Amino acid sequence: MRTPKIEALNRCINWLNEYIKNTSTSATSKYNLVSSTKLIISKINKLEIKPLDNYEIDSNGWLSGFTDADGKFSINIHKRTNKNSTRVQLYYRLEVNQNYHKEDSEGNKISFFPILFKIGLFLGVTIYSRSRLINDKIYYSFIVMSHNK
């Protein structure tokens, strides 16, 4: 994982590891589980927390997963008015909030800009900033758009 969301994943892993530890010891278990469930849980290995993924953007499937969550591909087909031909345009768009909803240990907002900057460099495009007003609340986001690459 490359984004501030790794914090939520790490909390989930810690919770799961603690749950496995607590349910596998019957004397200290606060969970009322049947013995077959305890047996299954006792066979689960502790999950390892891994560091941020700093490999090149195109070295693994990370970008496709990130796009699946927050991006889109589209194909537009236009008939050209002056010519007897058709134009096909390919688009990639990724839009994410400017800041993660949690703060870092010093109380600062954590920005998604560093990862969007890397994606923009990889695609050779500029990162745009957008603000929009919805129901009297302003939302800020970063956008990466690429076409016909």
Characterise the protein shown here.
The protein contains four helices and six strands. The protein is of the alpha+beta class and 149 residues long. The protein has two domains: 1-54, no CATH class; 55-149, no CATH class. The strands form two sheets. It has a four-stranded antiparallel sheet. It has a two-stranded antiparallel sheet with strand order 3-4. Strand 1 and strand 2 form a beta hairpin. Helix 1 packs across helix 2. The mean pLDDT is 82.
Strand content: 25-35%
Numbering strands along the chain, what is their spatial order in the largest sheet?
1-2-6-5
Main sheet summary: 4 strands, antiparallel
What form results from the Cα inertia axes? Answer: elongated
- The structure class reads alpha+beta
Order of helices and strands: HHHEEEEHEE
> Regarding quaternary structure, how should these chains be classified?
single chain
Write the layout of secondary structure elements.
Layout: H1 6-24, H2 35-42, H3 62-70, E1 71-79, E2 86-97, E3 99-103, E4 109-111, H4 113-123, E5 127-134, E6 137-147
Antiparallel strand pairs: 1-2, 2-6, 3-4, 5-6
Helix pairs in contact: 1-2
